[in-house]
Design brief:
7-stranded mixed β-sheet, 41% helix, 325 residues, 11 strands, Rossmann fold, single chain, 2 domains, 11 helices, 4-stranded parallel β-sheet, alpha/beta
Amino acid sequence: MGKIQCIGILTSGGDAPGMNAAIRAVTRAGISNGFNIMGVYRGYEGLIKGEVKPFTTEDVSGIITRGGTILKTARCKEFTTPEGRQKAFETCQRVGIDALVVIGGNGSLTGARDFGMEFDFPVIGLPGTIDNDLYGTDATIGYDTTMNTIMECVDRIRDTANSHERIFFVEVMGRDAGFLAQNCAIACGAEAAIVPEETTDVDQLAQFMGRGIRKSKKSCIVIVSESPKCGALYYADRVKKEFPEFDVRVSILGHLQRGGSPSAHDRILASCTGAGAIEAIKQGQRNVMVGIRNNEVVYVPFSECIRTDKRFDKRLITVLNELSI
């Protein structure tokens, strides 16, 4: 492949607050360094169908404050096939895209890796997911905003829990990672967090109830990571059956967690990694995710950030247990 002149940007998978800030950063840093920028709408689906538009600085003016993504996003089964990726490559050739910046989570970066390797195509990833489950970066774009949203919601739920002396199980997102649940439990002053990282070790509900619930409190908040088998409804039903003396309620926050104006932290993270993506392209890098570790921009191979499990700090469980007495 010859000299890179045009860079395409797309957002893929679930939306995350700060994606627009990342789009803005890639666009403006790219233009500042002499590249043409093209926005690809609706993720990999739009790349296959050719939904592409040249971007200027005006196209990204004022979007740093907005949640969601102006490029829209979608999950695309067709892109998981060689035939779908071939169509996407043909779009790049037809419209003149020489490199791609993909903003998304684990599945999106897996697609980016496959596309880059199959066609020897420069692809740079940005960690755009509220789950914070990508290895190689201290935080992902959208994680901080989502924690703050959950905290505000739980603060309000606490008022009702106190008024009615209830146990509330609050279900939050996170997929297979408990970062949101555990850290939000600490931030909200919750009595417990039930996270996937602990399910193989102990019966977390039995442990929580066995600590002497309500010895000093008249209400309880338990933050639960979403799960198709063991979510908040599962644990609430168990309490109703095993401890019928308690009044139990469930609140599933759902997509409420995804929206909203990004926090300062997410805007800065998105801006630094977006500019870092352009720097990576200038350096000739490919198939890497741009992350932040210890306040430094780092470049992590897709093979590492996708396949390596991000370490969950189990010391946080001890902190929560000690502070929730």
